[in-house]
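Before a colleague's protein record goes any further, I have to sign it off. Alongside the sequence sits a line of tokens, each denoting a local backbone shape. I want your independent view on whether this chain really folds as the tokens say. Where you disagree with what is written, explain briefly why. This is what I was given:
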Amino acid sequence: MKNRYFSLLLICCLLIGGGYSNYKELNGVAIVVAMGLDYLPQEKKYIMIAQIINPSAIASQTGSQGIPVISVVAKGRTISEAARLSSRKNSRTNIYSHVALVALGETLVKKKSVKYIFDVFERDSKIRVNVPVIIARNNSVFEVLNTIPTLDKIPAKSIYGKIHNTSISLGENSENEIREVISKISSKGREPTINGVSIENKNNTSESLANMENAKSSYPFINGTGIFKN
């Protein structure tokens, strides 16, 4: 009888304890809303940009006027290594489950295999594959992701909204997601397409709050579509 009670108690403890196995304090995590990837030929390294929400600036009740996002940049011999090394520059643990946009640099998609790039996303369970992907065209990935929008606080949200509007109003661009690109790469006779994004009115205040107060502010816009031969 005692053994039964002990077994029941042990099962209850395991069930209750299991709920806290992946528990993290909110003040100990950094929510990544956008990712940028590019390749540096001279250094033979990949560069990764993790764009993190700045909680104090987003919370409207605080009245804070700080930059809404913070970009952590890291380099590595592989994409995975760059992602790991980014932990050296951040006091909090990156959470990638809220990534809303992935931006690729022109050098990366020209110099490296598209299959390799998206194989990383397919194997990494931390990032959702139903996330829109773009190519930073005529501008660096950093510039595209860090241009402060005038209407939306989060650059990734602003870019996604423009892709959505363009796909509905003009029909020229579709909301290409990572999973769609992976599916086309894996299928013969299907060529993946990725939207291009550039910066209009690029200036010295693009990456600061002053851009919101500028009558001729900088802003990202949808600029063509990249087609990749499979």
